[in-house]
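Q: Fold this one first, please.
A: Sequence and structure below.
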Amino acid sequence: MTRSYLTVIPVQAPVQQAAFDLYATLEAALRDSGEALHDGDVLAVSSKYAAISAGRVVSLTDIHPGAEALTLAERYAMNPIIAQLVVQEADAILGGIQGFMLTHKDGIISPNAGIDRSNIPNGYAVLFPLKPYAVAADIRRAARERLGADVGVILTDSWLMPGRLGTTGVALATAGFRPIQDERGKIDLFGNPMQVTQRGIADTLCACAQLVMGERDEATPFAIIRNSGVRIEELMLSAADVAIDWRNCIYVESLTEGRLIAVTRPV
């Protein structure tokens, strides 16, 4: 019996700095790379690339800090202009450290509401896409109508794991497959029912894609994930399908409203 192995295929595309046609660029990138989308694939798309295509690039000279931003900038030793962007973009501001605010934005806890100043000309910043789940659904629709492939789509981003060095992939939005696999009630190796486990399939696939897409000068805003085993289906998805209320997040709640208990253990 032939076995199918998970495959992740990087697809390079031109560097972009202003609004452009994302779908035509995807078609050209696939053609130039000699690759094609197949039914059942999951297409990973850089959320930053998608945001730039929609013109979500701002000139920092156009941003004027207000009183709240100035207060936060002083508290966290931030550039007041970036602080103003965070105030405008964040769904909630949870706290911060020197240079950064911890925010909740589009179902993801991230520094500075996902505002990105890398791989864009100096003096500009890229914001998260507007309505990222709608963007993912539009890319899926375009892949079906223009490329004839019924695929899933992930808008990729990167985030910092609590207590860990380094970034890893996180799905900002998903279309065409269920991003969570609920294992609760199922039996483990020893016959015990699973109590709390829900697998983050979209985030796991996003981490796979990030390995080949990179985050520096790779110019690889697309990746094809093949043989992932996900079931492609027509779904209406939103951040509510993957995100818990941050007030119920063990990391956020424990370090804000929760009681912090210092435990000293013998060496």
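Q: Good. Now the second chain.
A: Here it is, same layout.
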Amino acid sequence: MTMQEMRGRVAVAGVGIAGLDATGHTELEILGLAAKRAVADAGLTLQDIDGICTASVSSAMWVMPVVEYLGLRPSFQDSTMMGGSSFVAHILPAMHALLSGQCKAVLVCYGSTQRSSTLNRAEIGRYRRVLDPQPFETPYEPLNPLSSYALVAARHMHEFGTTREQLAEVAVAARAWAALNPEALKREPMSLADVLDARMVSDPLTVRDCCLVTDGAGAFVLTRSERARDLAQPPVHVLGAGAAVWHRQVSMMPGFTTTAASDSGARAYAMAGLGPEEVDVVALYDAFTINTILFLEDLGFCAKGEGGAFVEGGAIAPGGRLAVNTNGGGLSAYHPGMYGIFTVIEAVRQLRGGCGARQIEGAQIALAHGNGGTLSSQATAIFGTEAAL
């Protein structure tokens, strides 16, 4: 079966979020609650789940305790860990498993208590360095991942004239969307001046250019489309998916201003038979404000180097030319360690039409994009309603 033949044959049947304030709960507990909500949202039970995809920063064998905790005996499992892009990247292997008959319902799930954990940020950083040694960068103890993204932002500013004000536009737009999302953790008004005058943490990025640190869990359920049509929710079909990895350390990037999203996006568009001009809603992994600008360029919504100008004047805020991160994104809604799964959940919610004040009227096609490491891994998925098939 070719990639194009897979288009629209698998759908998201259920989604769930839990544990945004997880004080007193473990990662497994909030993951389990999000999983149960996603399964129930689909009109299924955990006994119907025979495939699972999951990953964690803190455990190389995370799928094992998750399966044990949920009481599953899956015939398909994928615990590939590529950072925050993992849960978007899991979609394509899950499609293969579903379409081959290996399984009938795949649960993709994630949970983190990064904010309420007893481990502090320095301890987490030391733990990551032991698991993931970086021979050229680690000896200098950079403030990663922040310093790596600041380096890329500085290069984009140097190469294309991108300004601090344009970076701040991304944060302000995210906050404006968050104000319309009752789940978002930061909903108070924020201006360009608030971003620009905030504490500098790694030049040129201030603390308001950086994502939140929160707890949270997310999950979604994939089934074959013909089955999804008989379940509880309107199916949201996977039209295209792609993933790409070009490097691990930011110092090994082929060029600081182009990411592997240019590959993952091209693959997803080719499978879907669509282009960026046909996308109604965009959900991007916005760990830092530069991410949004880079991904808008690399995913074809504007030309390389024009991302700063593209976001000016509230262009990606409510009422702008392109609806980007309508839940508030990692900058203002929630960011529990790895945000990628929430891009899928927001894309699905928008295409179902149940997002209340932030709903994009008539949305038929949505793009979700995940990022992992220091711009190291990228994964793109394109979703459509029944009308988009």
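Q: Anything worth noting on the second one?
A: The mean pLDDT is 94.
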